[in-house]
Design brief:
seven-stranded mixed sheet, 414 residues, Rossmann fold, alpha/beta, 16 helices, 2 domains
């Protein structure tokens, strides 16, 4: 590309969203984990020590100190982390790229919690499980959302209306992000409101056309709860009402970003849907279980999704996997950031131009909760900033964007 590559968003930028996130919001997340009933006293002490380290310490390689002989980490995973961390050793937590800081923080939270420590009472346990369960089962949470969406779909006569409802719900479900706890209550109140007027980019019609034609669709998941149930309802609809023969979900290998979906979270959510007292919803959950047994509904995990790497650094095995896909749907803000290396691109740059490396056609469904944005004309960005100075980060607006690649022909299932 004949353009100057801009710098990454940094935790060192004075007064920035990145710096404020690390200094305030991430500190509160650590305190929440430390204060949970499932956290033993020694782990609580380690987490509170991590909080103090963030505020005044520097980056170091925890694999040299804390993570010897851990059965939960693959050799390649460890090697990838060590190589990435080596670039920032000795630097302040407030002088590093924002995305690296977040990914490294969640690795360190897992270490402090004892997630990787064999023999520990917290070995392999999700420190965010309590928050995930509450988001799924509480009033207004994921299961209630599933019942509401299923009822809406049943009431719609036109196929196109159902597709648009499914797509919009998959987008706006991303408003519920437990790592952005300061937005959760407000977002839940308006979860599926203001859907049309707050779309900054709307390729939903083209996305519908692609979804109806694709034989294999891959979804890079983001959050559990309301967002995940919307993703699952879309997957069910794809496998029962379109040409799709396979839907592949890609989940996190380890807990991260509080509410990001792991393989176990997908299975738990499907079971809860299947056990719902709503007959129609229960049928959907049971059908998803049957589709999974038949190999048409598949959940993958990989260490890449937890790493500090960006999408231009996709491991070969994921690159090859996504090459098999007719369409990849990337959910949420972090996946969008990783597409663009979390850099300060001008808003009028084009996503298609900045992602030539991506192996297949893809769509981004993103509720805006960070500063990065492209395909927004300069004048429009300026107007938005005048109307709402926080438009990039407050979760009010969304993007449905398709980038098509002519790398793989669509294969239609008979």
């Amino acid at each position: 590309m004949n353009r100057k590559t801009p710098p990454c968003f940094s935790t060192g930028d004075p007064g920035s969203f990145a710096k404020n996130t690390m200094k305030k919001r991430k500190i509160l997340i650590i305190e929440q984990v430390a204060g949970a009933d499932q956290c033993p006293q020694d782990r609580r002490d380690a987490l509170l020590a991590l909080k103090e380290e963030i505020l005044g310490g520097t980056v170091f390689d925890p694999f040299d100190v804390n993570l010897r002989n851990c059965g939960l980490l693959e050799d390649k995973e460890t090697e990838t982390w060590k190589k990435t961390i080596a670039c920032y050793i000795g630097r302040s937590w407030f002088d590093i790229p924002f995305y690296f800081a977040e990914a490294y923080l969640y690795l360190r939270i897992l270490i402090a919690f004892g997630y990787f420590e064999q023999g520990s009472s917290t070995f392999g346990k999700d420190p965010f499980e309590k928050f995930k369960k509450h988001e799924l089962l509480s009033r207004g949470g994921g299961l209630d959302t599933a019942k509401m969406v299923e009822g809406t779909l049943t009431a719609l006569d036109e196929s196109e209306d159902k597709w648009r409802t499914l797509i919009l719900n998959c987008l706006w479900g991303n408003r519920i992000d437990l790592s952005m706890f300061h937005l959760v209550d407000r977002s839940r109140e308006k979860l599926f409101t203001d859907q049309e007027q707050n779309l900054l980019i709307d390729h939903s019609e083209r996305l519908r056309e692609l979804l109806e034609r694709a034989a294999r669709i891959d979804v890079i998941l983001d959050n559990v709860g309301s967002e995940l149930v919307c993703d699952l309802l879309l997957a069910w609809h794809l496998l029962s009402s379109s040409k799709a023969s396979e839907v592949h979900l890609h989940a996190k290998k380890h807990p991260i970003y509080v509410s990001d979906a792991m393989q176990k979270d997908v299975q738990t959510t499907v079971r809860e849907i299947a056990d719902a007292d709503d007959e129609a919803l229960s049928r959907i959950g049971k059908e998803l279980m049957e589709l999974q047994e038949k190999g048409r509904f598949v959940v993958h995990l990989h260490y890449f999704w937890n790493s500090a790497l960006h999408y231009d650094e996709l491991p070969g095995e994921i690159h090859e996997e996504l090459l098999e896909s007719n369409l990849v749907i990337l959910k949420g803000d972090v996946n969008y950031r990783r597409l663009l290396q979390d850099r300060r691109w001008d808003s009028w740059e084009r996503l298609e131009d900045l992602t030539p490396y991506f192996p297949s056609s893809f769509a981004t469904l993103r509720t805006m909760k960070s500063e990065i944005a492209v395909d927004i004309q300069r004048e429009r960005a300026q107007r938005l900033s005048q109307i709402d100075p926080e438009w990039r980060v407050n979760g009010e607006r969304g993007i449905i964007q398709v980038v098509e690649r002519n790398l793989k022909k669509f294969i239609i299932r008979d």
